[in-house]
Amino acid sequence: MSASILKGKKGIIFGALDPQSIAWKVAERCVEEEARITLTNAPVALRMGQLQQLGEKLNAEVIAADATSVDDLTALFEKSQEILGGQIDFILHSIGMSLNVRKGKGYTDLNYDWMQKTFDISAISFHKVMQTALKQDVMAEGGSILALTYIAAQRVFPDYNEMAESKALLESFARSFGYHFAVEKNVRVNTISQSPTKTTAGSGVKGFDAFFDYSDKMSPLGNASAASCADYCVMMFSDYTRMVTMQNLYHDGGFSSMGMNPAVLRDA
Ligand SMILES: NC(=O)c1ccc[n+]([C@@H]2O[C@H](COP(=O)([O-])OP(=O)(O)OC[C@H]3O[C@@H](n4cnc5c(N)ncnc54)[C@H](O)[C@@H]3O)[C@@H](O)[C@H]2O)c1
After folding, report:
1. Domain assignments of the chain as residue spans, ordered by start
2. pTM score, two decimals?
3. Cα 117 to averaged position of ligand 1 atoms, centre (Å)
4. CB 42 less than 6 A from any atom of ligand 1
5. Is 148 in the pocket of ligand 1 (CB under 6 A)?
6. Would you put residue 230 in left (φ > 0), alpha (ψ -120 to 50) or beta?
7. What is the tens place of the pLDDT at every residue in 11-48?
8. At what angle do helices 70-84 and 125-135 cross, to 10 degrees?
9. Residue of minimum CA distance from atom 29 in ligand 1
10. Which CATH class is domain 10-266?
11. How buried is 212 (Cβ within 10 angstroms: 0-12 exposed, 13-18 middle, 19+ buried)?
12. Which atom of ligand 1 is nearest to the CA of 202?
């Protein structure tokens, strides 16, 4: 399913860790559609992960950057423009990590230092990406910026923990910064609210497998896969969506509109 709808476009993809990562699939699809990209992740993730292999396969430079560091982001944007030869048409923020989730702390027993770190990594980094890009005039006219989110920003999913507030903050940054990017640079900013997906970050949430199956049954089309999320991202980076901005877009097989699905009761 390739139509070269990103031909001539230049992009930066944050957050591909391994072949399960949503960002991994997005990177592959963008290059299939003839975009040229750079790949970035935190230095520790580059040491542990397989990103270099993806870079070689896609002919994409891999640049280390901690997304919570404005200095790292500044250097990343400079290098990416140098490598790709000019301003950037699209950016994917695909970053999430909760220290409290990782360390097994429940929602009523949170460590607040860790919570601050979680917000910095999972949400404030998105503001940092956009503010740094705006100040450096990185984005090309008509460009598109996307971040990935989850419906726990709107509804209660008890085991999603402090990531719920991270996603609420992330989505709010997309709306507020989307205004400024639109009037100053004619650039779109949106979030895609994705189904549960079996990745390193996703599987870190307690009871993930049972919840994945529940969500699959609850969604009339079933859970959206990482590959279909990549298709959606490609469309959002393309010129077909130039007037879509400041939106939280559900990509969830219909989950967000359901109240009750008989399929869930039938199989209970
Ligand atoms: N998996 C799901 O069920 C699901 C559902 C909805 C939304 N999302 C969101 O999709 C995005 C991607 O997650 P994923 O599921 O592909 O998992 P993943 O674990 O493959 O990706 C998370 C990425 O964040 C990166 N990261 C962490 N700290 C960083 C830092 N300081 N600087 C730069 N990068 C850093 C990790 O190295 C990793 O590559 C996240 O925002 C996640 O919340 C995931």
Report:
1. 10-266
2. 0.98
3. 15
4. yes
5. yes
6. alpha
7. 999 999 999 999 999 999 999 999 999 999 999 999 88
8. 50
9. 42
10. alpha beta
11. middle
12. 1
